[in-house]
Amino acid sequence: MRANTLIMIVLAGVFGVLAVVLANIWLANQRTAMAASNGAQISTVVVAAMPLKFGDTLGADKLREIPWPAGAIPAGAFKTTKDAMAGNGTRQALQAISANEPVLASKITGPGQRATLSAVLGEGMKAVSIRVNDVLGVAGFVFPGDRVDILLTRTERGDDGADKSFVDVLLQSMKVLAVDQVADVSKDNPTVVKSVTLEASTKDAQKLTLAAGAGQLSLALRQAAAGKGETTERVTLSDLTGETPDDVAKRQAELDKQAAADAAAAAERQRADDKIAGLEKAVDRVGSQLDELSKVKPVPAVVTAPASKEVVKEVIKYVEPAPPKNVTVGVFRGVKLESYDVPRQP
């Protein structure tokens, strides 16, 4: 082995040992400084020894105690594992708890209580479900723990008899408790669901139940940090085109006027057609009468010869006149009478 290589190995080992020693000294100094700066006693807090999900049963193997400043213990935390497991019966996690995260009373059930939806409800709150689909449910991107607004779409008949559609924001910032039958807030895979369960007060639950039969409910996912009190207003079809009610009324008046003009023109055409039909019938009657007259034979005229001594024998020959080839027909156009010669029908 070359001398240079050996020297480099020795130096690397020396520097490594020196780095470990210096790191231990720094960590010891940091712990001492922290304890001195706080000037408070150190207590303990129960944390999760492993990741927990909704419905997991708590046990001594899943919990552990770690040092914690006594003046900074979170509200609802347990100081010892015995306190967390106190009571008759086991406890279950109501939501996902990460490893080394403090176990709070609000995140687990009471002694002997099951991890059901009723255990997640706040004081005086109710759980109410509404039906959704892939579109109304924000394409499955709504998860337990999210906040949503409830939109109500309705169609009503106005005083003029026309149907008018509009959308109202019924409720805001409603907490989603479950999607379908899943209440685990750690769920993060988008899934098309058929129903969403919301946490609501008694009055809001009544509104949701009534609105489900009055129109179509849909969800609008809110930003996680969005607060309440957003000002909303009704949206109608006129808002989609930017038209005002006056514009809509003006266009409707024009349509009504055009419809009235079309109806008057149709009535005038009908009257003209009726007149023409009456004239055609009159022409047919005149033609029939002319046919009847042409069939009547004229009575021959007898001429009395003057008295004469000689008897003159007269021979009378009847010649039937030829029927007319044309027939004159009169047609009224408005108040003017116009005559036409038309071929006589055989």
Describe the structure.
The longest helix has 51 residues, at 245-295. The chain has six helices and ten strands, in the order αββααββββαββααββ. The model has no long low-confidence stretch (mean pLDDT 79). A hairpin with a 5-residue loop joins strand 4 and strand 5. The protein is of the alpha+beta class and 346 residues long. It is rod-shaped. Among the domains are: 40-115, Antifreeze-like/N-acetylneuraminic acid synthase C-terminal domain (Type Iii Antifreeze Protein Isoform Hplc 12, Alpha-Beta Complex), CATH 3.90.1210; 122-239, no CATH class. Strands 3, 4, 5, 6, 7 and 8 form a six-stranded antiparallel sheet that branches.
- Element order, helices and strands? HEEHHEEEEHEEHHEE
Counting DSSP H or I runs of 4 or more residues, the number of helices is 6
Shape: rod-shaped
Could you tell me the mean pLDDT? Answer: 79
Structural class: alpha+beta
Biggest β-sheet description? 6 strands, antiparallel
Low-confidence stretches: none
In terms of quaternary structure, what is this?
A: single chain
Query: Over the alpha carbons, how many angstroms does the gyration radius reach?
Result: 52 Å
- Total strands: the figure is 10
Beta-strand percent range: 15-25%
Share of helix, binned: 25-40%
Compute the separation of the termini in Å.
140 Å
Short recap of the structure:
This protein is α+β, with helices and mostly antiparallel strands and 346 residues long.
Properties at a glance:
346 residues, alpha+beta, Type Iii Antifreeze Protein Isoform Hplc 12, 10 strands, rod-shaped
